[in-house]
Design brief:
TIM Barrel; alpha/beta; eleven-stranded mixed β-sheet; 11 strands; binds iron/sulfur cluster
């Protein structure tokens, strides 16, 4: 993730991060962790009450008999905590549907992990928000892909926008730290001004703008991805509105996610107006090292299969019902896992000759595989010019 407020607006400097070291980073600086014990995304179930067109796990309306039981999930959490995974993120399907959500969250907290929820927000009633607060969820990420009908069209269910807005409001009332997650596509980029107004009017303190990763139903949407020639215009707009928030004195954390090209672009843009701060930003980007698939982020699906990140579903390294997560994660006998842990020499095409690979790390391999059927080819969502990827100074 690329912290636009923290990097472009300079609300964080390299000193702020280095002062803590890798182990003691506070929650607001975790995006700069160089760790490399992974954050765990757990797709706790396949079932969802919505039908989003870009759903990366192809969620449906069923529970499956092989999904991890409460006891199996607790065993997994215990092993993850022993492995020192710092964050346990409940995702889905829609995790609020899982009846043991709060029991498992309490268990993970007691085991020493931070718990985070990724949700469509439509089921967060006042009562659910209170329970989330009681279970000490440190962050609630709510997906919204536009205003009103634009969102409902993405979500495949009429009324989803109103219900998600209610979910936001209930989180804010309950004192939960919550944020908006939006996946950028051709169908919603014209809604961005309204989205920023929504963030302002609803008192939302964090927003993550995701670039599309071609996975699950998102694979059918490749043609709906923001065209390369419009990506920098969109990032420019996100930067412009973030700066306006700062000027108004709002402490809002605005980020882009799933395209490390944004880090290079942001640095190059900043270099023209403030070379000194740009140099500090470059150090922070180098410190975090770009894409962390297979290193700093891991995904476990509802059946216990371990994937290199939440999007790369067709790559599986083992199942936590058979082996401990740490044993699976550290096992580099699988060539993809081995390659991900040290990928620079494997990258091909533009990524193979790029001078920014130390801060991008080749971006998303799942996108390369979806388009070129080769996990080490260039990321097709990189919008930098040939000149930009060839010249460092
Ligand atoms: S060419 Fe590849 S490594 Fe370079 S910035 Fe683009 S995506 Fe990243």
């Amino acid at each position: 993730m690329i912290g636009i407020s923290k990097l472009y607006c300079g609300t964080v400097s390299e000193g702020d991060v280095l002062r803590y070291g890798d182990k003691n980073l506070p929650a607001n600086l975790l995006q700069f962790a160089r760790v490399k014990k992974p954050i765990i995304v757990w797709n706790s179930l396949q079932k969802c009450n919505l039908k989003c067109v870009h759903c990366y796990i192809n969620a449906d309306d069923k529970r499956y008999k092989d999904e991890l039981t409460t006891e199996q999930a607790k065993k997994m959490i215990t092993e993850l905590a022993e492995y020192k995974a710092p964050v346990f993120l409940f995702s889905g399907g829609e995790p609020v549907i899982r009846p043991d959500l709060f029991e498992l969250a309490d268990f993970a907290k007691a085991a020493g992990m931070r718990v985070v929820l990724s949700t469509n927000g439509t089921l967060i009633t006042t009562e659910v928000a209170k329970k989330l607060k009681d279970s000490d969820f440190s962050y609630i990420g709510i997906s919204l892909d536009g205003i009103g009908e634009v969102n409902d069209k993405f979500r495949g269910v009429k009324g989803a926008f109103e219900k998600a807005r209610e979910g936001f409001r209930n989180c804010v009332k309950a004192g939960l730290k919550s944020g908006l997650r939006l996946t950028l596509t051709k169908g919603n980029i014209d809604d961005l001004p309204e989205i920023f107004n929504f963030i302002e009017n609803e008192g939302i303190n964090r927003a993550c703008f995701y670039h599309l990763v071609y996975s699950g139903r998102g694979k059918d949407l490749i043609k709906e991805d923001v065209p390369l020639e419009r990506k920098r215009e969109i990032v420019d707009y996100i930067i412009e509105r973030t700066v306006k928030f700062q000027e108004k004195g709002y402490n809002k954390d605005i980020l882009t996610v799933d395209n490390h090209t944004d880090g290079v672009y942001l640095y190059l843009k900043l270099r023209k107006i403030d070379p000194k701060r740009a140099a500090s930003v470059l150090k922070l980007l180098q410190y975090t090292g770009g894409n962390s698939t297979g290193i700093g982020i891991a995904c476990i699906d509802c059946f216990g299969n371990v994937h290199p990140d939440q999007f790369w579903r067709n790559q599986t390294f083992g199942n936590i019902k058979d082996r401990k997560f740490g044993d699976i994660w550290d096992d580099t006998s699988n060539p993809i896992m081995k390659g991900l842990k040290d990928r620079k020499k494997l990258l091909k095409g533009r990524c193979g000759r790029c001078v920014w690979v130390d801060i991008c790390n080749g971006n998303f391999r799942a996108r390369a595989e979806a388009v070129y059927d080769d996990p080490w080819m260039e990321d097709p969502a990189c919008y930098l010019t040939e000149e930009e990827i060839s010249t460092r100074v």
